[in-house]
Amino acid sequence: MREIRDLDTVELILEAQGVLDAIRGPERVVDAGTLRALQQSGNYAVGLFDEGRMVGASIAFFGPPNSRSMHSHITALLPEFRGRGWGRELKDHQRTWALSRGVGNVTWTFDPLVARNAHFFLTVLGARVTGYAVNQYGIFGGGDAGDESDRLDVKWALADLATPPTGDEIVETLAIPENVEALREENPREAYEWRMRVRREMAVLLGRGLTIAGFDAARGYLFTK
User: Fold this and answer.
1) pLDDT in tens, 15-49
2) What is the side-by-side strand order in the sheet with 105-110?
3) N or C: which end of the chain has fewer CB within 10 A?
4) Nearest in space to 194 (alpha carbons), one of 118, 109, 138, 112
């Protein structure tokens, strides 16, 4: 049986920290004390359980007063449980939870080189890209494997999901690696070259006033005027 539960005990908090550490390695996303404080102060902190085992977690906290927004710090599954639609279940749960508390938007950031996330966030969920930042968090030793942490900012308008652009709406595309996470393990130099290439081309396209309006697995990011 699969279920999503609040992290409302110390034991669950510690279990969630273990799951997140297993996913991100030495780059600890959030420590147990901070996670407990977020949960106790009314923020979103849940675990996804399969047959009683926690296999994923999602953490978000409220944004500035009067913004009606939350920032999703992390939503992640252990690698062996990906590709089953369970990440969508977690995000749908987060969306329902947020709407029930008067939240209209959820924001987060992600690495623009990770194709599976670009597809999930922009195509499946219907989130919108709102900005691009170079090396937003410095150099990570975990999720980015020592690479600089360029990020796309996204906003998920919960009552107004975006639809991908089509046909003549698309004026430019920007390709990314099919699997940059594997590439970082096999050929770090090539992965870094992709980072620099995408950074340069992203700056040019956004500098022309274009907007990232979607993602396609074959073509990459889809830009519109």
Assistant:
1) 999 999 888 766 677 899 999 999 999 999 999 99
2) 2-6, 44-50, 53-62, 69-77, 105-110, 151-157, 128-133
3) N
4) 112
Q: Is 163 exposed, middle or buried (0-12, 13-18, 19+ CB in 10 A)?
A: exposed
Give buried/exposed letters for 186-210 (b at 16+ CB in 10 A, else e): eeeeebbebbeebbeebeebeeeeb
Largest CA distance in the chain: 53
Q: What's the residue count for the chain? A: 225
- pLDDT tens-digit map of 94-152: 999 999 999 999 999 999 999 999 999 999 999 999 999 998 887 654 446 567 889 99
Residue at token pair 């150099």: 139
**Tens of pLDDT along 54-82?**
999 999 999 998 899 999 999 989 989 98
pTM, two decimals, is 0.91
Token pair of 31 as six digits:
């420590």
pLDDT score for 23: 82
The answer to whether 132 and 152 are in contact (CB under 8 A) is: yes
Helix 32-40 vs helix 10-24: crossing angle, to nearest 10? 130
Q: Count Cβ atoms below 10 Å from residue 110 Cβ, excluding itself.
A: 17
